[in-house]
């Protein structure tokens, strides 16, 4: 009995030959399905996936070659061996061109058939792994250095080291730009799955309809535009880690499907009846309070408990004592310097966009500065003119809405609230290079609310324009 059974499909119209091959392969421990025609074989391929298929070339109705063509067209993934009574070089070449991986002439010994099937299975496995690696390389970035020696960050690093070796789901919560993805990668790098896929998806960055197809894949024809079968990220991450960013944005309608795959690893591509099993460690992140979302009915309670087995709260940058200086030194390229006044201003500022914002400010400063010295003049005015006292030195300060110790300079009373909001929203959008999902996260509002605000601002502008035109 083999220790490594092949899941295979044998398509042969001659009943005796088909059944004797199948019996022999089953006795060897392989998982064999049989079909007496091409049409029957295609039906089976819709229900199940196979590692290897053996097609007889000469069958009434659909020939082995036509069947191979259909498999190729429908992008059914399996290794195909063609079996023929008249093994000519030309037929072999045509079959290979159509994607067959091997060719066997009848009569062949059953031992030969098994050997060729094993080779095909191994080749298919390598091909899939190769494809998977390419996907992962194109999606993933190298592990990033976690800068931070503040007591709160030392605590975070300790928790990361504790949770990483388990294969349990982890929920990372924290404001936008605090490094949730960096921490997710650190967890994966310190886990037993470090050399396995790390695949990411950001639910806020994708339209609702696309999230399901990205996560679970789809079958050809499942919806307009589904021109071929596509594996989902759960399949791509199989054996490794899936990082779902902004999990709070996951449409309510999709949440049962996520719960199911987390519970028993089973899932189906959109439009497919075929049940697939995956083993994936989930790391989810959110900049919202998910328990509030549960209370508001936007997030299923059972899913919340499922993903919140281990949780980690990332502190905002303003609460990381001493880390602003470390991050400035880390991100300021050699041979740049920053003067004390600029450094102090950066230490006073409350960084609503956290580390991401700090990196942008440094990049901007190195573009604007003369020579290699960053001064106050090279910082955005809200930082250069910031009069805040850093949170660690301001226990008796007022606490602003975003939790920072904040004493904002009063604005001229003549300003309308809408104008202030518009200026701030457009400023953040500009900072995020027009990326609305990111801007919404920095602003702490839902993406759809940002769209509504932008529409309103655009509407106001139109009204203003038409008013001045009338005037
Ligand atoms: N501890 C850290 N040390 C150095 N760089 C960091 C650290 N944490 C985050 N960064 C950098 O800050 C930027 C934002 O980090 P990241 O994308 O992980 O944040 P996030 O919390 O996932 O943001 P969002 O909620 O917007 O998705 C990245 O460029 C990342 O490399």
From TrEMBL:
High-level lineage: Bacteria, Pseudomonadati, Planctomycetota, Planctomycetia, Pirellulales
Residue ranges of domain Response regulatory in the record: 7-121
Pfam families, sorted: AAA_lid_14, HTH_8, Response_reg, Sigma54_activat
Region entry Disordered, spans: 388-414
Domain Sigma-54 factor interaction residues, every copy: 146-367
Record's protein name: Transcriptional regulatory protein ZraR
Modified residues (4-aspartylphosphate): 56
Alphabetized UniProt keyword annotations: ATP-binding, DNA-binding, Nucleotide-binding, Phosphoprotein, Transcription, Transcription regulation
UniProt GO BP: phosphorelay signal transduction system; regulation of DNA-templated transcription
